[in-house]
Amino acid sequence: MVVNEAITPMPPAAEDRSITMPGNVVLWSAVRLLPMPEIIEFSGTVLTSPDSEHHGMWAVDGKLTFIRPAGNPDIVLDGWVLPGLTDAHCHIGLGPAGEVPGHVAEAQALQDRNAGTLLVRDAGSPSDTRWLQHRRDMPRIIRSGRHVARTRRYLKNLALEVEPGDLAETVRKQARAGDGWVKLVGDWIDRDAGDLAPSFPAWALRDAVLAAHEEGARVTAHCFAEDTLDDMLDAGIDCIEHGTGLLPRHIPRFVEQGVALVPTLINIGTFPDIAERADVKFPVYAAHMRSLWTRRNERVLEAFEAGVRILAGTDAGTVIAHGRIVDEVLALNAAGLPAAAALDSAAWAARSWLGAEGVTEGASADVLVCAEDPRESLTTLKTLRSVVLRGELVRGELQPRE
Ligand SMILES: [Zn+2]
């Protein structure tokens, strides 16, 4: 990487914010510490899609361009360039006990950003995180508002808990409060039945999805169990979270209805622990969770091969730490998705599905630079060379001047 003297040496305040990474590489947040470079040149191969490469790209005043600018670059970043990653299931402003203070939400967002997540589809948060959307140094967040769950059928203090008769109206309000998405909790343990069970009757879901669509919002739902998916598909749902209960009968409907699947595999990895804790009181539920876990990879691969749109989401917020998007991409690859497809589920395809800009002329310069071709070596994403957000180098390895 070449750094021109315009941004070196570092101002003294930068030392306070430096982070020493494995291998003693010092990385830091350059936001508000360094003047924004007017021109960044990307000297390596630019991946404008999973199968198209371009040479010659610049960020000028925060926007990408393929036209060489008149002035010299302030910084030259060398390496493979791809869009900032997207975490399609992430909870900023949420912790294990519910709402978190602002400084914690900020730290979560920075952890995501520093791992390369520059776009988050928030999948429900008890905190109002709109203030983070005004911060130039924060990843872009598409908010879902609050989770909507059935009374006493979800984790405490997280969701708006309602009965079926109030579902549609609650969803309508959350559609207005969010940024185009509403999050339902489609199933959870029913303690009386001792097993997973759908949260709401089919009629209530139909009315709720209709209400959201009338407000111009899409609806996604947490679904673990098999039966929940039938009702969700009947209701016209737009996206399914986890989807561990996916069966062959559901797959053609996902494809025909254009329903996306966010498997959150690194979160599904916690099912054996959940089962172990439930064994004594709820043995049927525990066995169900174990069987869903056993077939998790097979189900994702079947869906992918049938043409279901798969998106990478970590479910960071309660038990999963923030900043793990690359682990989810690796998990999708381990489930059988080819490396380029696993990457696409967090990159170009994810952005286009959310209606966000990719790597195109005039788009906001929200890109990552890595040492190797990430389509061939996903692990190169673990050690990003640079993170550029809104045209600013928010994370980068600044070498001492020769
Ligand atoms: Zn979640």
Label this structure with key terms:
single chain, 402 residues, alpha/beta, Urease, subunit C, domain 1, TIM Barrel, 2 domains, 4-stranded antiparallel beta sheet, disordered N terminus, binds zinc ion
Short synopsis of the structure:
This protein has 402 residues and is of the alpha/beta class.
What does the model show?
- With 402 residues, the protein is of the alpha/beta class.
- The protein folds into 2 domains: 2-83 and 357-396, Urease, subunit C, domain 1, CATH 2.30.40; 85-354, TIM Barrel (Alpha-Beta Barrel), CATH 3.20.20.
- Helices cover 29% and strands 25% of the residues.
- The protein has 12 helices and 24 strands.
- The chain has helices spanning 102-114, 164-177, 202-214, 226-235, 251-257, 265-268, 271-278, 283-294, 296-306, 325-334, 339-344, 348-354, and strands at 2-3, 18-20, 26-28, 39-49, 52-60, 63-65, 75-77, 80-83, 85-90, 94-95, 98-99, 117-122, 140-142, 148-150, 160-162, 181-185, 187-190, 195-198, 218-223, 239-242, 260-262, 367-370, 386-389, 392-396.
- The strands form 8 sheets. It has a 5-stranded mixed beta sheet with strand order 1-7-4-5-6, with no helix packed on it. A 4-stranded antiparallel beta sheet has the order 8-22-23-24, with no helix packed on it.
- α5 (251-257) links the parallel β20 and β21 (260-262).
- α2 packs parallel to α3.
- The longest helix has 14 residues, at 164-177.
- The chain is globular.
- The termini are close together.
- Zinc ion binds at residues 89, 91, 123, 315.
